[in-house]
Task: inverse folding
């Protein structure tokens, strides 16, 4: 069994069928890039994995655990939603929190939930929480260092450049140590000169053997960073393969025309 | 005489202040609940809340105050003096309660629309970011959304709250002696116009303080952009 198995995912919005049976496997530590033109279901696929959308049918398993469909209503609430982490196109940082607080917010909530579940009394919980918060802060500082923003821990998102904000968003997603980290066009909202710093961070994560799924329009990046590339067209996976298979020996007509259109664009 | 007038005005101002504080404290949470109601996916609840807001915003506050004072008689066929005895309060206090009930309901409706505008201004991405980080809906609201809503609604809120200060003068329709009412009594008793001027100064100072306060809150929240 593969680490992540996605089987036959269907998703419609009203009458528009966006995903028409998407299946793929991913091994632990692998990086998968998803390419294709806009409106072909790439983002919807990621959103289904992150439970931001509920697939109409299909199955998602991670390490033989069935993540979707949830076994029961109760299960869907208690099932660990942190199997997946998500980095958004528009960062979606919390504007009222500093960089460090953006990162520790969810960590602290997780810690608090665990404490509550363990049934510790209120006053002791307060004490224990202080300790947990300090530990989380230390852990967050380590993660911030990894994305190269140690000097900015006390800044607010509005004081950062787009590239820096996206790096904070990556750190925030990393903080919960998800099994699989998803990126939804992480550089699409950035000025061209800022994409490099973000892509560098993602490359660094690959070197740490982090399992990642990246929806991207940066073909050179997809080629360089991925173990597998998926080309999506019209709600299905048109072609899947290694970067060299996809970019150098495309088989399907749709992929060929997609790549040649990109090439023409570059020439212009 | 000056001291006497000021003393009387201060007594009226006490009622004004009490009405202001009670209305604010009760109508803010009630307004938040109503805004959830109007935004509810459960349509009957949403329509009910919208209907209430339509009626309350569509009729004069003075009329609502009068209506509340007549309710015991019309609904339960009891006289207000019996209600006062039943509740163990003086008739004056009962009248004040009537005014407060009308004010709370009225302002809750206006506040609920301000809350709604603030909550709907928050991008979907904030909720989604919270969700993928494993926060529950309640946690997302209180830890992520609320502070941003507060920042957005401070200017319209301050508008509404300053209006509330002046609306308290409507309390006299039921004979509650508020600041303006006390001033009018003084005008009649002492046959001079200055008490009205003093009352104006009271209102101005009160609203001045509120304006400064809201300015400070706005400044305090200016460190982030929504």
Result:
């Amino acid at each position: 069994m593969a680490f992540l198995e996605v089987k036959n995912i269907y998703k419609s919005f009203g009458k528009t069928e966006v995903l028409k049976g998407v299946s793929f496997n991913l091994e632990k530590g692998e990086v998968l890039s998803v390419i294709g033109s806009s409106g072909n279901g790439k983002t919807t696929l990621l959103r289904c994995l992150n439970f931001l959308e509920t697939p109409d049918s299909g199955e998602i398993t991670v390490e033989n655990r069935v993540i979707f469909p949830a076994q029961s209503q109760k299960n869907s609430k208690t099932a660990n939603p942190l199997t997946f982490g998500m980095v958004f196109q528009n960062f979606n940082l919390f504007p009222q929190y500093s960089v460090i607080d953006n990162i520790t917010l969810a960590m602290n909530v997780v810690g608090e939930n665990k404490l509550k579940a363990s049934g510790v009394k209120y006053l002791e919980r307060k004490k224990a929480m202080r300790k947990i918060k300090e530990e989380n802060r230390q852990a967050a500082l380590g993660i911030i260092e990894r994305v190269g923003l140690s000097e900015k821990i006390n800044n607010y998102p509005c004081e950062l450049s787009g590239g820096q904000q996206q790096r904070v968003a990556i750190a925030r997603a990393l903080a919960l140590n998800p099994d699989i980290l998803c990126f939804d066009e992480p550089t699409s909202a950035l000025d061209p000169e800022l994409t490099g710093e973000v892509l560098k961070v993602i490359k660094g994560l690959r070197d740490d053997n982090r399992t990642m799924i990246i929806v991207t329009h940066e073909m050179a990046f997809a080629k360089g960073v991925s173990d597998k590339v998926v080309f999506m067209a019209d709600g299905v996976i048109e072609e899947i393969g290694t970067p060299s298979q996809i970019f150098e020996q495309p088989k399907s007509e749709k992929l060929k025309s997609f790549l040649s259109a990109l090439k023409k664009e570059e020439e212009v | 005489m000056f001291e006497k007038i000021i003393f009387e005005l201060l007594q009226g101002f006490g009622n004004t202040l009490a009405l202001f504080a009670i209305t604010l404290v009760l109508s803010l949470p009630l307004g938040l609940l109503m805004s959830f109601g109007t935004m509810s996916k459960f349509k009957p609840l949403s329509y009910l809340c919208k209907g209430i807001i339509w009626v309350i915003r569509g009729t004069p506050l003075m009329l609502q105050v009068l209506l509340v004072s007549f309710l015991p008689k019309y609904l339960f066929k009891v006289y207000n003096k019996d209600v006062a005895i039943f509740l163990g309060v003086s008739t004056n206090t009962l009248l004040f309660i009537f005014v407060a009930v009308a004010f709370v309901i009225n302002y809750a409706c206006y506040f609920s629309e301000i809350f709604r505008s603030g909550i709907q201004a928050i991008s979907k991405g904030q909720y989604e970011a919270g969700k993928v980080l494993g926060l529950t809906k309640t946690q997302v609201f209180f830890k992520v959304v609320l502070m941003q809503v507060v920042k957005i609604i401070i200017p319209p809120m301050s508008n509404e709250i300053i209006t509330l200060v002046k609306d308290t003068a409507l309390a006299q329709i039921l004979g509650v002696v508020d600041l303006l009412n006390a001033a009018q009594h003084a005008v009649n008793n002492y046959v001079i116009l200055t008490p009205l001027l003093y009352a104006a100064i009271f209102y101005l100072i009160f609203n001045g303080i509120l304006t400064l306060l809201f300015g400070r809150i706005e400044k305090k929240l200016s460190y982030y952009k929504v």
About this structure: Chain A touches chain B at residues 50-52, 80-82, 84-86, 88, 90, 92-96, 105-106, 109-110, 156-158, 172-173, 176 (CB under 8 Å). Confidence is low (pLDDT under 50) at residues 72-79 of chain A.
